[in-house]
Amino acid sequence: MTPATTTEHTAAGTAHRRVEGRDKVTGAARYAAEIPLAGLAHGWLVGSTVARGRVRSVETAPVLAMPGVLTVLHHGNTARVTTDYVTVLGTSPDPTAAVFQHDQVQHMGWPVALVVAETPEQAREGAEALVVHYDEEPHDTAFSGDRADAYPLDSMGQPAVTDKGETEAELAASAVVVDACYTTPENHHNAMEPHAATVRWDGGRLDVIDSNQSAAWIQSELANMFSLDPQSVRVRSEHVGGAFGGKGVRAHQVAAALAARALGRPVRVAMTRRQMFALIGYRSPTAQRIRLGADADGRLRALQHDSLNQTSTVHEHVEASAGVSRVGYDAAAHRTAQRVVRLDVPTPTWMRAPGEAPGSFALESAMDELAAECGIDPIELRMRNEPERGPVSGLPFGSRRLPDCFREGARRFGWADRDPRPGVRRDGRRLLGTGTAAASFLAMAMPATAAVTAEADGTFTVRIGAADVGTGARTALTLIAAEALRTAPDRVRMRIGDSDFGPAWGAAGSMGTRSWAWAITDAVAALRERLAGGAGIPPEGVTARSDTSGSVFGLAPRERRAYGAQFAEVAVDPGTGEVRVRRLLGIFAAGRIVNPLTARSQLTGGMIWGISMALHEEAVRDPVSGGHVGADLAGYHVAAHADIPAVEADWVDDPDPEDPVGIKGVGEIGVVGVAAAVANAVWHATGVRHRHLPLRPDRVLTAPPAA
Amino acid sequence: MAPPVHSEITLTVNGEEHTLLVDHRTTLLDALRERLDLTGTKKGCDQGQCGACTVLLDGRRAVSCLQLAVAAEGRTVTTVEGLADGDRLHPVQQAFLDLDGFQCGYCTPGQICSAVAVIEEHAAGWPSAVTADVRPEAGPPELTAEEIRERMSGNLCRCGAHVQIVRSVARAAGAEEAAV
Ligand code: FES
Ligand code: FES
User: Fold this and answer.
1) Same domain, yes or no, for A625 and A546?
2) Residue A658, by phi and psi: left (phi above 0), alpha (psi -120 to 50) or beta?
């Protein structure tokens, strides 16, 4: 039969429920720890109770004698894996996922053993009973902005330092100067689904059912570690319960693979919530200094942004917070620097809106301070400093509709009626205020491969190594494929989350859906060409493949970003110090919106992350033990329903002319700028500037009153 | 002689009676997931802090990770798998599906079970911490967005689906107007 490719369909751009939605609301969708396997054994990780030192001995005998315990893996009895390879990102791997390779303890909660047993209860009890002796060494986990041992570090092709013009001279010539330090705390992803892997060795093949944001990345890392061909590793992750940057290769997959090989039977390792705080990465705390110099009319002469974050002693990670200042505003002089300090802590990693989330808090707070100093409306100040080209790079921008976002947001929020004076509005005993901030996030694409099959029954099957971590990617890609195939979405079967589908970028950097869509539209174009002859479809179907590595890197250099304007209204209780967000509105220019239903969810979800970051989230590290205080969802509060008001996201039309589908990406930009908009609103309510997140009640209560 | 570490229990789950020999350490959550293969009920924290494991226990919502299976002996459990009527989704499930009341879906079974109970608790006149008039004769308060948020706050959602969840609960309760 000939496929139905003649009628025009415009599925993309209209609201569609998630294609896997029914499975998710009925409980039928199975996640990584939920696939039954015959003969499955259960592994439980044991974390160190010291922050630095060496494992002297592991008392395995009493635990091995416990009912059901099958083995105890530790550095003294575990096979070696490879750690000196280059990752798909072109970096050296964080060696901390390679568990039980040596006796050194590099942070509190470092995995020192895995107890494997017939049941989870037996494994857990064995893990809790396991006695490990350490030679403890002094540790240093104290992060602060004035660490003398900090050093500048490049990150993912971004230089550590940029310097344009005469910053000091411009500051000296400025009528108004803002010079302030901002800090953000350690934040944790806390995806609702804990990391888990169910692993078996099938002949020589490693079969991994895992929760991650890119099956192909995990495949590649495990192949490297276990010295296998990539084809000898299969990673599947059909449903993933949130990722946010924290679901890469981690101790659970490696420990499960080691145990499964040692025992010759399948093993599942699921992390506990508490273990996640030590083992999956996190957003580093930052200390940032901003110096703005401006003429009396608010035009910037100088913009300086220095940021510092912590990293571990074994791997470097930059929280690229100064990046926002390289693309945000025009100024005669720009100076930015990103530095790190090595501490006895786990390696931090990317977390939703990496760099931009903390960086925009500092920059957009400072811009609000400048607006107040100059007596200029904060939106007008931003408009006056809107750059023509990349302020540091000198490159032309892709589409940059930030001013339109502010205009539309201001209209919808009622900004025009705002009295700029701080501390003058009340609702009962509460003080009210409003604040705004700009948002932007990188809009890029990365290589992917895809295969599209025209089936003999007139339907189509797409296979791509994409991951739907809750973004709605599976649904968006279905709509995109249907549009390209000129068929109805229900005739397209979207198969994702399997490394056997070939290499592909992951759900990361707001580049997932865009990168996968590119590969799918290329494959569809090839398929349509092959079908153009009009020959019938054989029983096995006709398949065309694509690989976008050539095309995605072929674009001329530009500053390509998505934009947004955030507006917050807060109520501050001066008696309790409680800050409540009453309204949050974000207007975005973020490329073509493929599925308005799920894109809005992505944007409001990001904005809710922003509220949570502004008001609640803070992992507290005890300098004495080197570990966390309250490493759980009670000690680390993420916004609950009662914390979240009516949050509204909308967009202006902004299809990216350089993308085959017009996409920019919506996964992260929602977070950016929210914390600043909230803090700016708190200033407007109270007259007090808060430069340290989160805006805890005690900080609000003890802040010196407004001058 | 060592004391027994297993006991036989009977649970009625989604209308079906199960007799199980369970380890005394097994939680109701693990009994559902690991023994009965009802993996719709999720484990987000295993310590009563996230609500992902919410089920209806004798009709009332409970976090199944804080309940030992042996302590549930003889009780009736409804999980997310037991809400739909054949192919017809429960109104709460339908509302979550239509209004995108979830993203990754991992908190979703807990949110849905909680919402089913919230709607019943509200209809029965139970007040919440934000109810202004808590006198029994005042009757159920209007199921505003604020009431729904308060009553659903034991169910965390890390994806940030809060806005859509509150709307879904309101629609299922027939209180959509009040809660937008
Ligand atoms: S798993 Fe039971 S409350 Fe989190
Ligand atoms: S939908 Fe992902 S945690 Fe709620």
Assistant:
1) no
2) alpha
Give the integer Cα–Cα distance in Å for A122 and A128: 10
Mean pLDDT for chain B overall = 95
The response to whether residue A192 sits with its C-beta less than 6 Å from ligand 2 reads yes
Structural domain ending residue among the three candidates A234, A254, A279: A279
Task: Please tell me the predicted confidence (pLDDT) of residue B1.
Answer: 67
**Tokens matching residue A353:** 């809106």
CATH of the domain at A210: 3.30.365.10
Query: Binning pLDDT at 50, 70 and 90, where does residue B3 land?
Result: confident
Mean of the per-residue pLDDT values of chain A: 96
Q: Is A125 a catalytic residue?
A: no
DSSP symbols for A645-670: -EEEEEE-----TTSSS-B---SSTT
Asked if A332 and A292 count as a contact pair (C-beta separation under 8 A), the reply is: no
Asked if residue B9 lies in contact with residue B20, where contact means CB atoms within 8 angstroms, the answer is yes
| ipTM higher than threshold 0.85 | yes
- On chain B, the residues whose CB falls within 8 A of the CB of A18 are 97, 100
Structure-derived torsion over alpha carbons of residues A19, A25, A28, A29, reported in degrees to the nearest 10: 60
Q: First CA to last CA across chain A, in angstroms?
A: 79
- Domain range for A418 is 395-442+558-707
Per residue in A536-546, pLDDT (tens digit) is 899 999 999 99
pLDDT at B179 over 70: no
Residue A689 lies in a domain: yes
Is residue A376 over pLDDT 70? yes
Nearest CA to ligand 1 atom 3: B48
Among A29, A239, A601, beta carbon nearest to B161: A601
Give distance in angstroms: CA of A427 to centre of ligand 1: 37
Question: B59 vs chain A: nearest CA distance in angstroms?
Answer: 18
For A651-662, what is each residue's pLDDT tens digit? Answer: 999 999 999 999
